[in-house]
Amino acid sequence: MPNPTESADLAVSPPKNQRRPGAIGRWVDRFLIGCLVLVVAILTATSAPAVLGRPFGGTMLLTHMMASGALVFGLPVFAFAMIRHFLPQHPIARSHAAGFLLTVTAGLLTIASVFACMLPIPSTDQMHRLMQVHKIAGLTMTPAIVLLLIGLRLTRSASHHHS
Ligand code: HEM
User: Fold this and answer.
1) Ligand 1 pocket residue status of 113, Cβ below 6 Å
2) What is the sign, positive or negative, of the torsion defined by CA atoms of 102, 95, 80, 86?
3) Residue 94: pLDDT above 90?
4) Is 142 in the pocket of ligand 1 (CB under 6 A)?
5) Range of the domain at 156
6) pTM, entire model
């Protein structure tokens, strides 16, 4: 027997200015992903001289270092906010999960490799290898974010089909 109040709720559509509970979360996600895309674009663009084998210094290195702070602070915020997508009530596309995990793992490796270089532990040779790891992990961020964006889209279209 359906509860009369529940049926009445279903029959009347909510006022236009009243957002569904998930809507705010989606805007937070959009904002965080937008920031991540911007910061990773700056970090990748500023590292272009090093990737092309040219000296890495001056304004490019300065900008790389300024943007790096934003990633060090922003990546954990992004990861903590988006981890709720893994709640079992809301199944997500595989590419969505893989894109998120790859973005966070590559981001952590990008940061950890630089952090390890700062410690008085690695030899010069090991530092060079750590910078190789940094480069590969950093350049993996872009395809990882692209995969995440595709996955988010697939999850959204699947949930529209179900509702
Ligand atoms: C998408 C993110 C990033 C990309 C694509 C990226 C890419 C690169 C590349 C290609 C290099 C040159 C490596 C080499 O010499 O072979 C480099 C150097 C460096 N990066 Fe990044 N990076 C990113 C994020 C970061 C972050 C988050 C930090 C700091 C926590 C950072 C700090 C550095 C430092 C200190 C260097 C060495 C600069 C030098 O050789 O003087 N990068 N990065």
Assistant:
1) no
2) negative
3) yes
4) no
5) 21-162
6) 0.87
Residue 142 makes CB contacts below 8 A (sequence gap 6+) with: 40, 44
Any atom of ligand 1 within 6 Å of the Cβ of 75: no
Number of domains in the chain: 1
Within a domain: residue 5?
A: no
Q: Is residue 8 part of a domain?
A: no
Could you tell me if residue 11 is inside a domain? no
Higher pLDDT, 159 or 79: 79
Lowest-confidence pick of 18-22, 55-59, 96-100:
18-22
Round to whole Å and give the CA distance between 111 and 74. Answer: 12
Report yes or no on 95 lying in a domain: yes
What single-letter amino acid sits at 133? Answer: V
